Amino acid sequence: MARKKIIIAGAGPAGLAAAYELCRLDQNNKFEISIYETENQIGGIAKTLNFKGSRFDLGGHRFYSKFPEINQFYQEFLGKEMLVKKRLSRIYYKNKFFNYPLNISNTVKNLGLIKSIELGLSWIKRQINPYPEEKNFKQWVANRFGDKLFEIFFKSYTEKTWGISTNRLSADWAAQRIQNFNFLKAVLNACFKINLGAKTIIDKFYYPKYGPGMLYEKMAEILKTKRVKIKLCHQIIGLKTKRNRIVEVVSTKGKEKTDYFISTLPLNDLARMLKQKNNLKFRSFITVNFVIKTNPFPDQWIYIHDPKVKVARIQNFRNWSQFMVKKSSQLTPIGMEYFCNEGDDFWSQQDKEILYLAKKELTKIGLVETNQILNGFVYRVKNAYPIYDLNYKKSVEKIRKIVAKYKNLYLCGRGGLFRYNNQDHSILTGFFVARNIVNNNKKLNVWAINNEEKYIEAK
């Protein structure tokens, strides 16, 4: 009997997870699996980059999950190479550093007593007169935290991240990321460690010794022993359909017929390949990475809420793991995240211009002196974050109806589902898709994953 061919679009967490689960369940060797990856390295936005002996993530990726099978999966692959890390992060606002999660004494000291009282009064005012509808991000947050706290700790960072006003950002994003949390619970937890039904923001997590890319590199090694073909630099640019099936995949390297197609492609791109117009958009980002002579600050990451600088978040990868640099080295890899849109003015700048700006901002914030910076590089990431504008849900529903007509088309991953998933969610969607193919049905609902959070991860 001829083996069934499966093509997976994308070698990120979801695509690799789908391939791994297919191999695990395929006891009779029924499937021939190929993974098409646009980039020259696997891992998607969870890859780890190597530069002159130092390692850099594309942003930070903590390893924790509410799903027992994902935690077991992490341990199975990484075991003793998983480090237990105590979280240390802060917010930079108006030339001051605020502990995050917020600490009352630190917050009052930085804001002043009068300003701190104003935060509480603002929250009380909004409890008396809440927004009757919570359509946008501002309304959702202000109803739970008050207008003053929204302005200080939510507005600037959120607008940097998404590139649109918080009035135009759907409340769905806030509900997904800050569920079951509000001003009163934050104060009680900060003052007395009292938890009134909200899961506190995670203060410990696992992290792979050599960065998250370590997991996906190990997965790829196993997949190759199972004769899975991982085709790097193969960008999918088109699909051929026949009788409600995907029958051929067109890439920059040629064409290949298939029996099943698993897509982690950005949902808007997939829709266009299926001749469906849509208004979905993704936010991209640029990470500017520097090697510093010594370790300049204790945090793993710092949120930059100050609108006077363009950088949104700064990572210190040595504080994630001392193994991110060569043994006995005092060097520190730093990553600065700049959110933008693919093709906009910032995205189109030359690397040397972006490096110059990043150096200037790093010293302006006061974290590093210029003479401590040895060298650096720029890395661009397309289609990183699905933008939840006020109309996104209608567009997604329309595409879902079209996709449902294709019997051999399966979607998974952050981009594939147009959902702001963490990596554990993305991995689980890959598992679900694989199980649906093996069982020849679509009973496991990938769209239900991450609909209801049981922990808080606000940023």
* CATH class group of the domain at 4-41 and 67-76 and 211-280 and 389-448: Alpha Beta
Q: Provide mean pLDDT, rounded.
A: 92
Strand content: 15-25%
How many helical elements? Answer: 16
Just name the CATH architecture of the domain at 4-41 and 67-76 and 211-280 and 389-448.
3-Layer(bba) Sandwich
Termini gap: 50 Å
Give the fraction of residues assigned to helices.
Answer: 25-40%
Describe what you observe in this structure.
The chain has 459 residues and is α/β, with parallel strands linked by helices. Among the domains are: 4-41 and 67-76 and 211-280 and 389-448, FAD/NAD(P)-binding domain, CATH 3.50.50; 102-200, no CATH class. The protein has helices at residues 13-25, 68-78, 104-111, 113-128, 137-145, 147-162, 171-177, 183-192, 213-225, 267-273, 317-320, 345-348, 351-365, 392-404, 413-417, 423-438, and strands at 4-9, 31-36, 48-51, 54-57, 82-86, 89-93, 96-100, 204-208, 229-231, 236-241, 246-251, 254-257, 260-263, 282-292, 301-304, 313-316, 332-340, 373-386, 409-411. The longest helix has 16 residues, at 113-128. The protein starts with a strand and ends in a 21-residue tail after the last helix.
Keywords:
459 residues; alpha/beta; FAD/NAD(P)-binding domain; 7-stranded mixed beta sheet
List the helices and strands and how they pair.
Blueprint: E1 4-9, H1 13-25, E2 31-36, E3 48-51, E4 54-57, H2 68-78, E5 82-86, E6 89-93, E7 96-100, H3 104-111, H4 113-128, H5 137-145, H6 147-162, H7 171-177, H8 183-192, E8 204-208, H9 213-225, E9 229-231, E10 236-241, E11 246-251, E12 254-257, E13 260-263, H10 267-273, E14 282-292, E15 301-304, E16 313-316, H11 317-320, E17 332-340, H12 345-348, H13 351-365, E18 373-386, H14 392-404, E19 409-411, H15 413-417, H16 423-438
Parallel strand pairs: 1-2, 1-13, 2-9, 6-15, 13-19
Antiparallel strand pairs: 3-4, 5-8, 6-7, 10-11, 11-12, 14-17, 14-18, 15-16, 16-17
Helix pairs in contact: 1-9, 1-16, 3-4, 4-5, 5-6, 5-7
